[in-house]
Amino acid sequence: MGPIDTAVAVAQRGLHFVQEASPSLLILGLAISLSLGAALLYLTLYLVAPVPRPPYPSEKTYTTILPDGSRSPPQPLPSWLDSHVARKNLARRKHSAKLLEDIPVDPASVFVSVVVPAYNEETRLAGMLEEAVEYLQDAYGDAHGSLVEATKPSTSATQRRGATVNGGGKGQQQQQQQQQNGSTSMNGAAAGREEETTTTRAPGRGWEILIVSDGSTDATLSTALSFARSHQLEQYPFPTAVPGPWKSGPGSKKATQIPHGSIRVVSLEQNRGKGGAVVHGMRHVRGEYVVFADADGASKFEDLGRLVNGCREVEDERGRGVAIGSRAHLVGSEAVVKRSAIRNFLMHSFHLLLRLMTPPATSRIRDTQCGFKLFSRASLPFIIPYMHSEGWIFDVEMLMLAELGGIPMTEVAVGWKEVMGSKLNVLWDSLGMAWGLAILRLAWTMGVYRRN
User: What is the pTM for the complete model shown?
Assistant: First the structure.
């Protein structure tokens, strides 16, 4: 008897057994099979689902430029997360009736924090920083807050005060009007955006940029510190501006002077991936609002004001909100049409997977992958402690956790352009993102990942 005959005989015996068996026995067998399958799937997910490594001691320090222009020794990074976890553990030991989610985070000391993940970005980082500090210093004043601003006002702050006095409060009225207008809706409000974003301002009390060098092997770290040194107040007055993706013409010949300590650089010993670098930075931010932005400057940084306004519009009574920079309004534009057919095909395929494999609110977001997202400080404890993804798919997990925590989200149209030098391998990274999305969704659905 050959192998085929043997297989046929076994199948016939199995069919005969099923026909003769009672319904209860069949149901029991089916239940056992499903249970074994679920257990096997859970075990597989437990083994393959990513678990982030704890940070090394050196990764919880930062370097900056001191007032004399010298490079500082490693300084300890403040961590709202460590303080928050300590408070939660204390509440558990005391069996506090207070909801653990209601435990507040450390108060903000600046208005906005910018986290910039950077892996081998020595050629693109300075241009992005040039455009970022120009907007931040103009919109939010000194990074050291009101005390330094009162004794040694920044150039931009002096100009704003002069404009307010000479113009009878016109600048302030324009600011309030822009805030009332709020974020741009996704229904084609990109028209007139050039003029609007240059005047959109939100009152604040300081800013910081936290650059996370993700195991870089080039001069990323020294590039960031050299930029900070050359732009520091009083040390190098009016340095030459570095051309950026959005402002490379004759209009940006003079650079923005910045206070010392406003740019901090963290160096990861090993590459973690973009998501790992972003999450690491967001554990140590001091801002009332936190935005992460790609080091290539592809997103128009002046649209940060739109994100702040959009987040404020949807914040709940606990101050929680997320504003998602979106390029969905660019679909059909020259920037997208010029892409290769395979890239557009993979983009649309990934969007279909997102709709099928993510919860309702996340699936309705038209652009989950734009590297320009803003979070209110109050929303961070519901997202950052539970992050697992460290690759390209981390954005989706952030949005899923926001949805799981009941945090309001809004999608805001932002400017975006293609910048040369991307490290994204379109084919392999797209396949990796699809695999990561499947693992992510299954791990949270089956309880491999849990909030508590």
Answer: 0.79
Angle between helices 304-314 and 170-181 (to 10 degrees): 60
What tokens appear for 41 in the block? 């799937």
- Helix/strand/coil for 431: helix
Task: Report yes or no: 211 and 134 within 8 Å, Cβ to Cβ.
Answer: no
DSSP 8-state secondary structure symbol assigned to residue 55: P
pLDDT at 430: 77
d(CA 292, CA 114): 6
Below-50 pLDDT ranges, the chain: 147-203, 251, 337
The two structure tokens encoding residue 142:
């000194």
Measured CA to CA, the distance from residue 346 to residue 452 in angstroms comes to 35
Alpha carbon distance 61, 387 (integer Å): 21
> Distance between CA atoms of 157 and 272, rounded to whole angstroms?
38
Terminal C-alpha separation, the chain: 58
Q: What b/e string do you get for 153-165 counting C-beta neighbours within 10 Å, with b at 16 or more? A: ebebbeebeeeee
For residue 326, which phi and psi values (nearest 5 degrees)?
Answer: -130, 140
Provide the residue type at 76 as one letter: P
> Cβ(134)–Cβ(291) under 8 Å?
no
- Non-local CB neighbours of 162 within 8 Å, separated by 6+ positions: none
Instruction: Quote the pLDDT of residue 192.
Output: 39
Residue pair 399/322 in contact by the 8 Å Cβ criterion: yes
Cβ-based burial of 249 (10 A; exposed 0-12, middle 13-18, buried ≥19): exposed
In the sheet that holds 207-214, the strands lie side by side as 263-268, 207-214, 110-118, 287-293, 372-376, 322-326, 409-413
